Amino acid sequence: MKKNKxxxxxxxxxxxxxxxxxxxxxxxxxxxxxxxxxxxxxxxxPNSDFIARIGYSPNKLEAAALAESELGSYFSHSVHSIxxxxxxxxxxxxANANVSRKIxxxxxxxxxxxxxxxxxxxxWYDSSKRQYVCCAYINRxxxxxxxxxxxxxxxxxxxxxxxxAQKQKEPINRIKLLKAAQTAGDVFKEKLNFANMLSENLxxxxxxxxxxxxxxxxxxxxxxxxxxxxxxxxxxxxxxxxESAIKNSLxxxxxxxxxxxxxxxxxxxxxxxxxxxxxTKMIVLNPFANVSLEGKNGGAYAVVIKTERVxxxxxxxxxxxxxxxxxDEINAKLEADIKSKLGL
Length: 344
Fold this sequence. Notes:
It is built from 8 helices and 14 strands. The protein has helices at residues 2-18, 41-44, 60-74, 140-166, 171-198, 200-226, 241-252, 315-342, and strands at residues 27-28, 32-33, 50-57, 81-92, 98-109, 119-120, 124-126, 131-139, 230-234, 266-273, 283-285, 288-295, 298-306, 310-312. Strands 3, 6, 7 and 8 form a 4-stranded antiparallel β-sheet that branches. A 4-stranded mixed β-sheet has the order 9-10-12-13, with helices on one face. Strands 1-2 form a two-stranded antiparallel ribbon. α7 (241-252) packs parallel to α8 (315-342). The N and C termini lie far apart (90 Å).
């Protein structure tokens, strides 16, 4: 019986030494796990199927936290995960003496998003370096399937604006909704970027057509703006300063300003009223301008631009000053007001 036990122990030792066991694929030379080194980690967790990173520390829990931190840095994001505690670690000294150390630690793992479906290996102690090694990894396909719905939700929000824009007959409404689609598309792009990091193949297969649509959107908006020009018409101006200010604001918004009203999709009108006060020796004006944007199907925008009163010795000088004041107000406010009200 004793002889049989010795034979069984010898056979077991042989199997362990030669790596013939269930975990042999994850170890090298039957001792050191493949995932403890970036030189061999590809054999344990192939990059095509996994994202894997390693953490090293004299503290077991800290090694695991640092491995997750390294994994988070792969995505260039930050998750705040605090690992706090106190642990006593026993190391083997050179003369087979045990040395106990008490370690207080505080590890911060930073990522812009909460990493999910993260798995970790048991920490392995490297006695030659007196530190623990841990590997944190993500299965690309599994994580992508979890994240897919997040990307789909962002895609659906983007497409709701885009599809609605295609139904609009009014050019400004189309531009407004296309720009809203562009804003929603920026969020969708962020989701796609992360999805691509998980699995580029699955992302292209599922969202390839949407990615093409996103890339074409800026040129679509530009084409829409170019094909719908604006003619500017001012009833009373001084040296064309008010007209110039309106044209400048519209151009900054992406509109093409034309000199021919018959070719324009919209007419931007400025009805200027100098509002002359009576009963004074000096010329006193309280100027304002009704600025509107009108399309073939009706008005799209209107605002009243006012300035402080103007006092001058004669009417010509007063109108010159009033026109410049109105032009300054238009330059300062019109672009932002149109953008806000029309969603451009």
